[in-house]
Design brief:
8 helices, 5 strands
Length: 177
């Protein structure tokens, strides 16, 4: 019997930023990231997305080594797609967000998860991709997996320590910060 396929999802940089800045261990943003780490979905990433995550986390005051480790982890978790020039199939009020929409289309993502008002706006066009904030995304993902609302408890720090040793502890502290 073939293993069930998992959806491909683009997680916008706003979710990464919020996950890293959140003090709580069970925030929806952190759970969104941890579910990719646990194989509940495939996270589509691109060079532009990784570069924006890196730049913004550094601007927010996070140390370079943990930020580089976080970005390296995203590359390991992600379905890596090349950046694609806009072709008119997507549109958004903020032209700086068009690359995220193109990534969602090119990667054939089921969902784009974001907290960015421009990406969630009704006037934003991204054919074939449902755009959702983290909480509704998690509800849909749980439903797809046949889970109850409380079935998944994140253990991000333990997971990162297990997979990355002491460096994982530093990354976990970045995510907890």
């Amino acid at each position: 019997m073939a293993a069930p396929s998992v959806p491909t999802v683009v997680v916008d940089t706003t979710v990464h930023f919020s996950a890293c800045r959140s003090d709580g261990s069970t925030s929806p943003n952190k759970e969104t990231i941890h579910r990719a780490a646990h194989g509940h979905y495939s996270m589509a990433v691109s060079p532009l997305l990784i570069a924006e995550v890196y730049k913004k986390l550094r601007q927010l005051g996070f140390e370079e080594l943990p930020v580089k480790s976080y970005c390296a982890q995203l590359l390991k978790l992600g379905v890596i797609c090349a950046d694609v020039a806009p072709d008119g199939t997507v549109s958004c009020r903020d032209p700086n967000d068009v690359y995220v929409l193109m990534l969602a289309v090119v990667s054939k993502s089921t969902w784009l998860v974001s907290s960015d008002k421009d990406l969630l706006d009704d006037d934003c066009v991204c054919p074939g991709v449902e755009r959702l904030p983290p909480v509704p995304f998690l509800k849909k993902l749980r439903g797809l997996r046949g889970e109850s609302a409380s079935a998944f408890v994140t253990h991000g720090a333990a997971f990162l320590k297990q997979t990355h040793g002491d460096q994982g502890t530093k990354v976990a502290s970045l995510v907890r910060k």
